[in-house]
Design goal:
With about 450 residues, the chain is of the alpha/beta class. About 40% of the residues lie in helices and about 20% in strands. The strands form three sheets. The chain has a nine-stranded mixed sheet with strand order 8-10-9-11-12-13-14-16-15. A hairpin with a 4-residue loop joins strand 9 and strand 10. Helix 1 packs across helix 2 and helix 3 packs parallel to helix 4. The protein is globular and about 80 Å long.
Length: about 450
């Protein structure tokens, strides 16, 4: 049974025939290859594209080793796309496995030292040539310890269209699971949305798959790619980040925590570098801290979130299941999946205390930039008492602007609005909202 990923199929279709290389990025094992070679291909076949118009090459397969030579790969693709009356779809999986080949027809002595890369043909060169062919549409995936797919995007810039693929959303999981909404949420917030974990037949198999995947694929990729001497520090840093998802931190604070709590020696620069490795591998996402009134960013303090809660939970052996932190992380991932830029908000408020007016900072979980406006979002388990209501809405009520304000609560309550114009919604209706625009949340009658 297929797990539908219609949003991504629509994104791929919207980018088709745009003259650019379509680069499918995302954490390993989130379903990039399946999306391209199965779901998107099935869509195109249903639209009338003939089977012989597809050129599919998985460079991970032993039978395709010869195509890791970019020149051989190029010649093969061109031989399959000779009919100029047909439009061809070229799908290349694990493109980074192509190695560079030295050009033998160039006089090496004439090439300056700073241009030595020009002596080689790489897959970048052949993809740029293929994308310029009017009858060829090129799609690639790729990420491993040799070159993560974020590098491909950086290189191509305006010559490539990036489609970011995330683990299954709650809506995708719910539609597939056959569970009711509440039970589906409990499974999702515990085991996440990695497709093969979702398909596993038992909780024990889910747990083992996620733990093995994190240890033997992601962290090993990082150690190999960056030639780390060992995995002690990256292991410790990962555990510290996962233990404090949604907490404000910086490299100095993290280094101290690793030293005092984990008894592992490290330095601030090392932690800063390793954070970038985890982010490049799509294991974590980083949210900047933004002063809502001052309209500026804080450089040194950020929040870190896990890309998939199942991977995070498995790494910590399913301990530290703080509901409020998990829900906040889940909401953050959903906002990214919908294509928003998301920051952590800070509101400075002066209050009279003992005849003085000290200034204190209050947090807004998320400042969502929609392009035309900002939307403030607070994640809260409940607002069952007046004290809790005041606590969860205080920062929202003190922004001194008229941007939309939303509090997302645990559970399945329908959207409603209080007298101050703050919208409240259960997390389930929010996560199942089929439209990407937050303003599509409507108040129940």
């Amino acid at each position: 049974m297929d797990i539908a990923r219609n949003d991504y199929v629509e994104q791929l279709n919207a980018a088709s025939r745009n003259g650019k290389v379509k680069i499918i990025t995302g954490i390993r094992r989130c379903g990039k290859s399946y999306l391209l070679s199965h779901l998107y291909k099935q869509y195109l076949l249903q639209q009338g594209v003939e089977e012989n118009c597809f050129v599919e090459i998985d460079l991970e397969q032993k039978s395709n080793v010869s195509f890791r030579n970019p020149n051989t790969l190029y010649e093969y693709i061109m031989s399959k796309c000779q009919d100029k009356q047909h439009k061809y779809y070229v799908f290349i999986d694990e493109i980074q496995l192509c190695y560079k080949v030295k050009n033998t027809d160039m006089d090496e002595s004439l090439v300056p030292e700073e241009d030595r890369d020009l002596l080689y043909t790489t897959f970048y060169d052949i993809l740029n040539d293929l994308r310029a062919q009017p009858n060829i549409d090129v799609y690639v995936t790729g990420s491993n310890s040799k070159m993560l797919s974020s590098d491909v995007v950086t290189y191509f810039r305006d010559r490539g269209s990036e489609i970011k693929v995330y683990p299954l959303s709650y809506a995708e999981y719910y539609a597939f699971s056959g569970l009711d909404k509440v039970d589906a949420l409990e499974q999702y917030i515990t085991y996440g949305g990695m497709p093969l974990a979702v398909l596993a037949s038992s909780t024990d198999k889910k747990r083992k798959y996620l733990a093995d995947l994190h240890k033997n694929v992601y962290l090993k990729d990082i150690v190999e790619r960056y030639k780390l001497k060992d995995d002690v520090v990256i292991d410790a840093l990962t555990d510290v980040i996962y233990s404090a998802i949604g907490s404000l931190s910086n490299p100095h604070k993290l280094a101290n925590t690793i030293k005092t709590v984990m008894s592992v020696e490290t330095t601030d620069p090392t932690v800063k570098s390793y954070l970038s490795y985890l982010e490049d591998a799509y294991l974590i996402s980083v949210a900047e801290r933004y002063d809502v009134r001052g309209k500026r960013y804080f450089e040194n303090i950020k929040k870190y979130y896990a890309t998939d809660l199942g991977l995070r939970n498995a790494r910590l052996n399913f301990r530290q299941q703080e509901r409020s932190h998990l829900m906040e992380n889940m909401i953050y991932n959903e906002l990214l999946r919908r294509g928003y830029n998301v920051d952590v908000g800070v509101v400075a408020v002066e209050q009279m205390v003992n005849g003085k007016r000290p200034q204190s900072q209050y947090e807004i979980d998320f400042v969502v930039n929609t392009g035309s406006e900002q939307i403030y979002i607070q994640s809260a388990l409940n607002v069952e008492t007046a004290e809790k209501m005041n606590q969860e809405t205080f920062s929202l009520r003190n922004t001194r602007d008229f941007f939309r304000k939303i509090v997302i609560l645990d559970g399945n309550s329908l959207p409603w609005m209080n007298d101050e114009g703050i919208l409240f919604s259960g997390v389930i209706p929010f996560m199942l909202n089929p439209l990407s625009n937050l303003t599509s949340l409507s108040v129940s009658n």
